[in-house]
Amino acid sequence: MDKKIDQAKEKIKCFHIKTYNDSETFRIQFLGKKKGILTILFKELKQTSIHERKTYGKIINELKKEVKNKIKIFKLKNDFQNEKILKFDPTIPGESIEIGSRHPISLIKERIITLLTRIGFIYVDGPEIEDDWHNFTALNIPIYHPSRDMQDTFFLCKKNQEILLRTHTSSVQIRYMKKHSPPFRVLSIGKVYRNETISSCSNFMFHQAEGFYIDKKVSFSDLKQTIHYLISSFFGEVKIRFRPSYFPFTEPSAEVDIYCNSGWLEIMGCGMIDPKVLKNVNIDSEIYSGFAFGLGIERLSLIIYQMKDIRIYFNNDIRFLKQFKSEF
Ligand code: PHE
Q: pTM, whole model, 2 decimals?
């Protein structure tokens, strides 16, 4: 009996289970109902004395446990490997993931930020949901002013027309000037909203860039120089014209046109900040003066990319959008 047990022990130890088939062969070899090595030993046990049966029985039972454990460990390891393979199968042919591209509006926004921060402007963001005071009143557009009609917008509360979607980024001027003392040069870019019918050249939402500069002795020639720098960075040496215009918050005011495809194209509004606006934000207009300009990003990008319809920017057509790479 001792010898047989030792042999069985050795065989169990030396058996290497590599596959499921191996584990089955292993099980049958030791625990098979008829010819299993341990099954036979159990049968032979019956012919031994009670004393021997007790000691040998214990040892053979240990061996049985060992066989079962060995099978269990193999199965656990094997299942784990299979699961890993299911999750990551390096043999599956790779699919190329298309990397998106920057939206043309974002490209131009970034370009403007780069250009203006280079000449000392800092970039700030402002809220799209505004109150009447920041969007209109503080900018010298009182409640019955006709220019409010041109900037009709979306009011967020039916009863109280105080809270609205901003119609221009000029509201950021007020927010910034209220909190900071001059001198400062600030740029803000973001979405603005107007009650407009959607067409090839207008939308209820578009993007504006607002720049303003306040210091002692800021003059109209500083404004002209800044705008000349901005436009020539985009278009090279183009003809620019400052056409007199009117905005309630600037005095004097001008519209800037560029000469393009044998015609003049309006590209932005600008002017010297009206002393009344400075007074509204507690800046002494006897000491400080400043300029501001507001530029439509969609308008600019139509010219840069030579397109005719702004709706294409917002249709989410991947074929259109993926053409844009930063050229700047
Ligand atoms: N806020 C004006 C608009 O939306 C543009 C502007 C900005 C004009 C700053 C003058 C100065 O039309």
A: 0.71
